[in-house]
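Example record

The entry below shows one chain as it appears in the dataset: sequence first, then structure tokens.
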Amino acid sequence: MKDGFIKIAGGVPEIALGDCAANAGRIITMAREMAKKGAKLAVFTELGVTGYTLEDMFLQQTLLSAAENALIKIIEETAELDMLIAVGVPVPVGCCLYNCAAFLNKGRLLALVPKTHIPTYSEFYEGRRFSPAPEKGFFITYAGQKVFLGQAMLRCAEMPELVVGAEICEDAWVPCPPSVGLAQAGANVIFNLSCSNELIGKSEYRRSLIKGLSGSLVSAYVYCSAGDGESTTDLVFSGHCMICENASLLAQQRWSTGTFITADIDIQRIDADRRRMTTFTAVPSEQYPLIGEFNLEVTDTALERTFSPTPFVPSDKANLEERCKEIIHIQSAGLQRRLKGSHSSHAVIGLSGGLDSTLAYLVTVDAFRNLGIPAENILAVTMPCFGTTSRTKSNAQKMAEAIGTSFREIDIHAAVQQHFKDIEHDGVTTDVTYENSQARMRTLILMNTANKIGGLVIGTGDLSELALGWATYNGDHMSMYGVNAGVPKTLVRYLVGYFASVAEEPLKSVLYDVLDTPVSPELLPPEENGEIAQRTEDIVGPYELHDFFMYYIMRFGFPPHKIYRIALQTFEGKYSPETIKKWLMNFIRRFFTQQFKRSCLPDGPKVGSAAISPRGDWRMPSDMLYAEWMRDAESV
């Protein structure tokens, strides 16, 4: 439960149709197994105490009494479990019979939530027996306890941000499900107790429906449908069970009755998304009241949930190619519109032979091709100086020759040395002035060359560099359009790899060599053997760590201690705890202190869920203090 994590379970016991005592025993046994796995929330199937396919037997008092007695047994036998449990039971009230989800917690019956939408079409005939949920709830005595019956929500006393609501089977399939009102009233976890039969194609639709609901509600949603034991007179049930979180399917099973699934949901992540979406409004509702609290011990959740070490890169490799195409299209489309708007048919780009400039160059080539502008209207400029190696310089030239763009080499040694004389720098001390003078000289040349030919300077800096402030202010920091501004470094590598995979020789070999070249600004003299001496990741830290930190700070606002916790799990065996903490603190320091560079960024397209434009996703004062973040990071 700490850090917003809580384990949820969905169970499908085999149904003993009409034998309530047997069903209660199976629910109790499975609930205990769920608790051993660390589950704090447990959901079972629709009418799981009796079985769903009993037809008119629901009108028999013998069955209804047996169901009530079975629920009493479940309440008593699960009282020692630290869980909120939802089981399905038929509840008679006067002349009405309700299909209910019973909420149980530590020996208490907290609520009975009836099904709202009663299907009476095709294979369903529930309207013959069951009444829809009353418009306004009321208290009854059931299973020996006074309990609220109606649509309602429950809050965890020890974790107030956790609010649970429920709907039942058909409720999810209607135009305006009860879960919509529940979510708007504050529920961020929705239970669905179901008994949905199988038909060709129905499981795929059901999966997309539940994923979509969890996404539109910005919630966790656990769906449990009955399986073996239900009558097969006319229908078959697969025990389809799913746990989703904000449109992501965390766990699933079908055709596996007698088992359960678990997943770790993240309440803080859900609430972070809701806070970001100003169109998501949560207000108290008389129709969906918060009628009580349940109790859970506050413990560390033993995480089964995994976190991608590259959250900006699609985990599904089958979709990686399509994602790369889409990102490149976004980058290219943004540049095409800028070229049209500026009435320009020329572009100038500083092509160093490194990853970022290679991607920006390839995107520019794509944009010009789509606009029908000759490739030679792109001027690739390489500007060797003190740190340039023959490898990167050669790759830049080979790229331009392979594609057919214009290419120019402008050696800036003399210009920078003259500048050193002008500002009285000895030209030997390799300090920040030594480095930045080269970067600013290159930008001066690019800007003035662009003016001369009537073109645009294409920016090459990526999202990760902008987050870290790893750019020379008014040097490579500046351009007329930054096509890589929304692309993090880990994704840059995949995009260049995609270009390489579809390219023909000799361009293919050049691109693979670029991918194999260490990331470097090449502002310090190379080693004696001619190899790059200045490796960026040795200075600021591994980009895969920084992209991981950036994703969870910018996208969800996670505190440093939580990011450290999930990074430990994600990078176990690759980075030591000390290394992760060191670079996390470095990221925090650089992220806050370098905002002044981001406050005046050139235009550039957003391509993913995290972006850093001061005109769009990220607005913060440049002089903000960050002591709270550092204290939190130091505490781990």
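Notes for this example: The chain has a mean pLDDT of 95. The radius of gyration is 30 Å.
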